Structure formats: C-alpha cells, structure tokens
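S.,

As promised, the uridine 5'-triphosphate run. Input:
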Amino acid sequence: MAVTKAVIPAAGLGTRFLPATKSMPKEMLPIIDVPVIHYVVKEALDSGIDDIIIITGRSKRAIEDYFDDSPELEMHLANGKKEHLLKMVQEISSLVDIHYIRQKEPLGLGDAVLRAEKHICNEPFAVLLGDDIIRNDRPCTRQLIDTFDRYRCSVIAVEDVPKEMVSSYGIIKGRRLEDSLFLLEDIVEKPKAEEAPSTMGAIGRYVFTPEIFDCLKRTTHGVGGEIQLTDGIRLLKDSQNVYACTFHGRRYDTGDRMGYIEAIIDFALEHDDLRDDVMAYMRWVVQA
Ligand code: UTP
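Predicted complex:
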C-alpha cells in the first residue's frame, strides 16, 4: 500500500518561543513572509502525499485560517488589480485538502499522533513535525517513503547531533546496514550525554506502519509526563523491524530560537530582492 497520508502534529505549547506563542502557533512564525508550516505541508505534497491531517490545539486557529479561502482579502486584491498577490493567496488555499483534529491537551507528541488513528484507517503514513523545515531537491519525507517501499517497515529520519545536544533528542542505537541505513535496536528519549547509546538523533520525520497506534496506546507517560512517540517506537521495534535513515538535506529546527534565526538568514539570502541588502547589513553589523 502506498504512503499517501501524513500527520502534522502542531498542537504543542511552544514554550521555547514564549511570549510570542502565548497567542500564536509557533508553526505560523514567518520565515520572512511564509509561515513555517507552509514549508512542511509543501514537503508532504512534494513527497506524493495527498491527504494531510494537522493536529491542532487551543490558540491554533491561525493555521486553519491560513490554508482556508479568504474571500474578503481576495476581493480586495482583485479590485485593486493586484493579480500577482491574488494568485499567491489563492494558490495557498488550493494546495491540498487538509483535515484538522484537535488534541484537547498537549499530552505529548505520541498522544498527538494517536489522535489521527481513525483518519489513517490501517494504512502506512508519514509524520512531519510542524516546526521542522528540511530542504532538499528530493524531500526528506520522500527519501523515507523510498526506504519504506523497499522494506515495508517503519522508518525514522536521524541526524548526527553534537554530543551536548543529545539530551534534546530521541537517540537511537542501531546496527548499520548501509551507509545511510540502520536497523533500530533501541531508542531513548532525551538521554543524558553520558548515557546516550549514540549521537544519532531522531529529527521530525517518520513513516509508520499502522501498528504504531497500538504501541502508542500501550505507552505510559514518559519523560516530562508526556506520551512520547519515542516510547511507542521502542515498543514497535520489539514486534517488527524499524529502520533509521540519515537523509540528504538541510534541517532547521524553527521551534528553537537559533534554528529560527538561521532559517531567516539563509532564506533571506535566497531572495533576489533581499540578498544584497541583507549581505550589506550583515557586513555592517560585523564591522561595527
Ligand atoms: P516540541 O516538543 O518541539 O513542541 O514538539 P512544543 O512542546 O510545542 O515545544 P516547546 O519545547 O515547548 O518549545 C514537536 C512538534 O510536536 C507538536 C508540536 O506542535 C511540534 O510541532 N506537539 C508536541 C503536539 O502536537 N502535541 C504535543 O502534545 C506536543
């Protein structure tokens, strides 16, 4: 069965970005003029996904509004003969059909994924975290689906992270099968550096077989009192193979302030109408 559905959890509290996230979703933070979640949805589409479920929570209405029609704005742009802006706005709402499911309380990433069970209907599916942007010609999710198609087993994307950062990730222990492929032997949520089984951290992209849902239901509250996706994966690997895959691409954790700043600078330098001014400004800042 092909992977055509994706779950985008976006119901977290975003405490690293308070106070901004008190009233706005961190997934809507703009990278110049495009919100983070737009890039995540686009990655799913470019990977062959045509059915997207976004898990939302309180204060997340802006996400639904962003992907919806906006008749008043469209009429205003049409009347003002702003064809280019009108086309841009209309394209966003016609990107794909998106379904929204509320996570009533932010009980953890595992709980957020579990909310999508009824919609997924016993099919394999992708998960893309709503605050991670990954850029590559062949999208990261597509790379995972390719591996899924080969093995028909769950696949998680991993990246070698600095040792001092392992306590922020789910860290894997894996048996290397190929250059970029590991058979998952264990995964531990946010271990201390001295206890981490490796420095390979799970980043925000996954493809799962539907059996992950039963594993998540059997998962008890883990690190931080949350239902951890990592703990669900840990149970899953006991009953079927799970693979971990390094990927091609540049990742920005925009839920982290430094990751957000890096994304803004890199994306600004790619805008023809901004590059020279941004470069000149950065030179001025460095010299001052
Ligand atoms: P994070 O751990 O980065 O999100 O979860 P957070 O809890 O919102 O952020 P901080 O650490 O407090 O700043 C990764 C993704 O999972 C979603 C988040 O919205 C984010 O996209 N998530 C997390 C949920 O949907 N529900 C949850 O209960 C937790």
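The CA atoms of residues 269 and 277 lie 9 Å apart. DSSP finds eleven helices and 13 strands in the chain.

- D.
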